[in-house]
TrEMBL record:
This protein's record includes keyword Transferase: yes
Keywords annotated in UniProt: Methyltransferase, Transferase, Ubiquinone
InterPro entries, per database record: Methyltransf_25, SAM-dependent_MTases_sf
GO molecular function, one term: methyltransferase activity
Protein name: Methylase involved in ubiquinone/menaquinone biosynthesis
Swiss-Prot/TrEMBL GO biological process terms: methylation
Top-level division of the source organism's lineage: Bacteria
Residue ranges annotated for the Methyltransferase domain, each copy included: 45-135
PANTHER family: TRANS-ACONITATE 2-METHYLTRANSFERASE, TRANS-ACONITATE 2-METHYLTRANSFERASE-RELATED
Length: 209
């Protein structure tokens, strides 16, 4: 599938640039830190679409000694994640094909990974996530809204990547249908390299609350 293969090729080729840009990107780091405050030490955490391990790195730096597992489809990103977070367990897998036993994790984070999934794939993944999450445990979800789906160049890659801009209303409905309650929802603007503004959406949710 071209949208997937071209996107992964771009991530593989520019993983170091991506890592350098977002490793300490304050707007995103701050959101992760806020979420970490809600978690208890020693929790089992799943980082989906982990990239070079930027989210997992913040989890590690918190000192809460989480058990971290990360998954990404880019082999080069996974290699970087293993270097950035030596204590984590990272594997190169397709999020559309993952499978875990029910209630395997205390927290699951999806930081800008559903932006590469179409509506059906996104809904299927969130349904799985709800199953894998323990009762009354936490979900972190971020994505973009407000633009047209399609291939785009980015600030870290001249090669195009395919992005989906899911509507907040649709995402909220899917979360509700899967017994995931939103505890906190925030939006903020992200300045693109062409001067336009993309709306980033951040959701903290919990299962069964």
């Amino acid at each position: 599938m071209e949208r997937i293969s071209k996107t992964i090729t771009a991530y593989d080729k520019h993983c170091d640039v991506y890592n350098d840009k977002f490793k300490e990107f304050e707007p995103y780091v701050q959101k992760i830190k806020e979420f970490i405050e809600l978690l208890e030490p020693g929790m089992k955490v799943l980082d989906l679409g982990c990239g070079p391990g930027n989210v997992s790195r913040q989890l590690m730096l918190s000192g809460k000694e989480f058990s971290i597992e990360g998954i990404d489809l880019s082999e080069e990103m996974v290699k970087l994640a293993r270097k950035n977070v030596p204590s984590g367990k990272f594997s190169c897998r397709d999020l559309r094909d993952i499978s875990f036993p029910a209630e395997s994790f205390d927290a699951i984070l999806l930081s800008f990974c559903i932006v590469h999934l179409d509506g059906t794939e996104m809904a299927d993944l969130l349904k799985k996530v709800a199953k894998y999450l323990k009762q009354e445990r936490r979900l972190y979800l971020s994505f973009m809204e407000g633009k047209k789906d399609g291939f785009e160049k980015t600030s870290f890659s001249e090669e195009e990547l395919f992005f989906y801009y899911h509507s907040l209303e649709k995402v909220q409905d899917i979360l509700k249908d899967n017994h995931l309650s939103i505890n906190k929802l925030t939006k903020q603007g992200y300045l693109e390299s062409d001067g336009s503004i993309t709306t980033d959406v951040f959701i903290f949710a919990s299962k069964g609350n």
